[in-house]
User: Fold LysR substrate-binding domain-containing protein from Streptomyces goshikiensis.
Amino acid sequence: MDLRALHCFVAVAEEGNFGRAAVRLRLAQPPLSRRIRELEADLGCRLFERIPTGARLTPAGEVLLPEARDLLERAERARERVRGTVADRVLVLGMVAGAGLEVGPAALAALRRMRPGARVRLREAAVTDPTAGLREGRVDLALTRLPFDTAGLTVRPLGEEPLVAAVPADDPLAGRPRLHVAELADRPRFRLPPGTDARWRAYWLAAEEEAPGPVVASVEECLHAVLWEGAVGLLPAGAALRHARPGIAFVPVGGHPPSRVVTARLAGVTDPLVDALADALDAARQAQAGQGRRDAPGQLRGGAARR
Assistant:
């Protein structure tokens, strides 16, 4: 499959409209439509249905979309690796569920002091992959959270972040200053798909596997499940700041271990640039923890996010 055609397909799928996709791609609409037709001919099926508001994916298109994104990402990663042999390398940092996001600027500044000219690209992974694509070679270093299966990985702890319960704003729990995780029992929970790392699923569900509720693959889908389906669930405390919106309340939770923020990398792989990035993240977290202790004693633990 032609990568240019896949770029066009993803743009139309994400915009839901050929005209908007053409503007996004800086391409006239006739060539865009032609590339989609050629891709459909190559695959032997229709990928879009025309609707009054634009275009909607067919079942075949829905299957192709994640595969196309994966192929395009791998192609870009291959380009970066090849370019890295003749030019400055771009480190790819994978992030899961906002882990360590607040220390990004400080970490980047620390990295540039250690490695002037170093460049980093952030890749936000779905919450279904706690390694952020590390095992598939999509990232150089993962900024993530325990627990998950760490076989074959080297993990470096950075700190802890407390949890909050995301609940509908009109729920009786929404007005509470704090709740115990057991109080979420018997409520519909947002859940991760089957096949997701078992330890990761169990930690975030904090309930029996057969607990009812919608299956989600991203933080945004978690929030939609709360807003539209009345589900509840656990999120890192930082979500209360990053994802605040009408209709959803975030209540601090006790009775469940805090989220442990870590960096992870492939075991046995020596890479001075990755070492420098991991050291910069650690330094930024430690500086944040020290500032937190000075500003509000007891609020932060080992670099945990401010509640």
User: Anything to note?
Assistant: Residues 3-79 form a domain with the Arc Repressor Mutant, subunit A fold (CATH 1.10.10.10). The chain has nine helices and eleven strands.
